[in-house]
Specification:
The protein contains 5 helices and 2 strands, in the order αααββαα. The protein is mainly α. The protein has one domain. Strands 1-2 form a two-stranded antiparallel ribbon. A hairpin with a 2-residue loop joins strand 1 and strand 2. Helix 3 runs antiparallel to helix 4 and helix 4 packs antiparallel against helix 5. It starts with a helix and ends in an 8-residue tail after the last helix.
Length: about 130
Amino acid sequence: MLLRLIIAAILGAILGLERELRKKTGGVKTNALVSLASCGFILIVREINSAETARVITGIIQGVGFIGGGLILKAGNTAKNVTGAAEIWVSSAIGIACGVGLWQIAISLLLISLLLLRLTRKYLPPHPHNQ
């Protein structure tokens, strides 16, 4: 269980590092904690009653959605930090995958997220409100 928690926190931190380097909200600590907590909730419920795992996953998704909604700021006609909110959700999915022992999914989520973020920065022009 400790290994799952550590890996969840490390993978979440790696995802958050990308945002931290770009001086965006939801950096290393936020992503590491969301991933760690998601993994922790799964491990706890599996120890108590594995039949409740799906219900806890649903609760995690809703709770992280609430946190993500708090990250999004409306500035005039635009919304800011939407990517940060989405990244928090990915971090949570990484933690859930670690909690149930699906390492390949956790690592795939991390790598695909980082690849998508890199490709969008490289090939799409910056949004006007980010300049």
